[in-house]
Fold this sequence. Notes:
Layout: E1 3-10, E2 30-37, E3 43-49, E4 59-64, H1 75-82, E5 86-91, H2 111-128, E6 135-140, H3 142-145, E7 158-162, H4 176-195, E8 197-198, E9 208-209, H5 210-220, H6 233-238, E10 244-249, H7 257-264, E11 272-276, H8 278-281, H9 296-311, H10 313-318
Parallel strand pairs: 4-5, 4-6, 6-7, 7-10, 10-11
Antiparallel strand pairs: 1-2, 2-3, 3-5, 8-9
Helix pairs in contact: 4-5
Amino acid sequence: MVQRATSYGTEATGPSAAESATAPATAEPSFHVARVPASDGVMLGARSYDPPEGTPVRAVVVIHGATAVPQGYYARFAQYLSERGYRVVTYDYRGIGASRTGSIRDERATMRDWGEHDATAMFAFARSIANGLPLVAIGHSFGGQSIGLCDSWRSVDASVLVGAQFGYWGHWPAPDRWRYAIMWYGLVPVVTTAFGSLPGWLGLGTDLPKGVARQWARWCRDPDYLMRDEPRARERFTKHAAPTLFFSFSDDDYAPEHAVRALLALLPRSAHHVRMTPAEAGGPVGHFGYFRPGAESALWRPTLEWLETTLGQTEMLRTPRDDRSS
C-alpha cells in the first residue's frame, strides 16, 4: 500500500541560478509526498509533481537519481515537466534523504538493492498513478545503470539517460584513473571500516551506507562493473527496447567518454547518443548541470520535444496504453 500525504511540500533547496526568460514564474516547486513500500518492506520517500489543474496528463515520468544525490536536486526539472503536462515522480534510494530511517551506521542497503528493490517499487508506483498513460524513465548516472538491475525498465515507453556510465576505474584517463584506483582499492574500504559508512564530507555531500559504498567500490574495481554481481544485467541492457535518448558531456569528469561508451555498447543500436561540449550546451554542464534551471533552453526543451515526438502525444492521449506487468 502506498501511503500518500494529503498536503503539498515545497522545495526550498533547489539551485539558485537565474531562470531563462521563458521559464515559469513559480517561486518554488510544489509536490505531493508519498511513502512507497519496496518488495522487501523498506519504505521509500517519494514525491509526485502534478500538472496544473485542468491540464491533460500526457505521461508519467519517474526519475532515477544519481548516487548520493537527494531527490530535491531534481525538483526544478520535475516542475518544468509537470507544468507541461507530465506527472513526475522522484524518490530517494534506501539509506538516503527521505528514505533514511535511522543512523547511517544501521543501514543495510546495497547498490543492488537500489536497483532491484527501490527502482522496481517506483516503477510500480508510477504505473499505479498512470491510469494507462505512457511511462517514461529518466536515469541520471547510477539511475541509468539501474537498467541492468531492474526488470521494470522493460515496461517503459521511452527513456532518457544523463551522464550514465560504467564506473570501472580503468575507463578514466590518466591521471584521474590513479586517483580513482586509490579511492576504490584503499580509501573506501578503510573509511567505511572506520566510520561504518562513507561520510558525505569526503566529497559526495551525502552520507552513503556502508554496504552501498563497498559494493560500489567492488564494482569499480572490476572491468565488468555491476555485471560481476548480477548475471542478468547484460541481458537487461541488450534487451532495453524503449526508444532512448542518451546525453553525455565532454566536461563531465564523472562520466568520461570511454566509461559512457562502455555502457552505451550494451544498449541496442537504436539508442540515440548526444555528446555535447560546453559550447554546444550553452555553458559548463559537468555531471550535474543538466538538471539546473540554466539548462532549460539547450537541454530541457530538446528533451521535451524528443519525448513528445517519441510518445506521439496526440495518439497516446486518445488511446492510453494498458498497464503492463513489471
